[in-house]
Amino acid sequence: MPKKVTAVIRHPDHMPVIATKLQCPQYQAQMVERTALLQRLPGPDCKVLLVLAPAGCGKTVLLSQLVRASARPAAWYSLDPHDDEPRTFIRHLAAALQRHTTLNEVQLHRLVSRTEPEALCRPALSFFVDALEASSSGLLIVLDN
């Protein structure tokens, strides 16, 4: 049965954010627990973790198990080809982060209102770095592709 996809209208620009893209997948008990892989992952002081493997190797399952096992809050974002558009990416990442930390809505609106998508990269990076530095939650961000 296909998953129900819901859209949430969020500011700025009243563009839909697909809420199901921001939810860590929940698996039934029949999924293989990747205990050995989880034990090999770096500890909570790790700043960046790249999980790279061919399709179907269980990256999403591993990351969802990491989120469940972690004491840190997690912002999940499932990427697809539509997220190559900078404004779409920024809106969804911001919505994922807003579940755990406060973002500057005015600055976010200014950012996604820029007319040239090419001019978004540096300001967006600055915006998200500033937001994460201001957050005290030790947020874990998962970008699952």
Shape descriptor reads: globular
Q: Mean pLDDT, nearest integer?
A: 84
**Content-based structural category:** alpha+beta
Radius of gyration: 16 Å
Strand content: 5-15%
Secondary-structure element series: EEHHEHHHE
The helicity comes to: 25-40%
For the biggest sheet, the summary is:
2 strands, antiparallel
* Gap from first CA to last CA: 22 Å
Spatial order of strands in the largest sheet: 1-2
Number of domains: 1
User: Got a strand count?
Assistant: 4
Q: In DSSP terms, counting alpha (H) and pi (I) runs of 4 or more, how many helices? A: 5
Set down the secondary structure blueprint.
Layout: E1 7-10, E2 15-18, H1 35-40, H2 59-69, E3 74-78, H3 86-98, H4 105-112, H5 121-134, E4 140-144
Parallel strand pairs: 3-4
Antiparallel strand pairs: 1-2
Features:
145 residues; alpha+beta; two-stranded parallel ribbon
Structural features, described:
The protein has 145 residues and is α+β, with helices and mostly antiparallel strands. The protein has one domain (7-144). Helix content is 36%, strand content 12%. The chain is built from 5 helices and 4 strands; from the N terminus they run ββααβαααβ. It has helices spanning 35-40, 59-69, 86-98, 105-112, 121-134, and strands spanning 7-10, 15-18, 74-78, 140-144. The protein has a two-stranded antiparallel ribbon with strand order 1-2. The model is unreliable at 8-12 (pLDDT under 50).
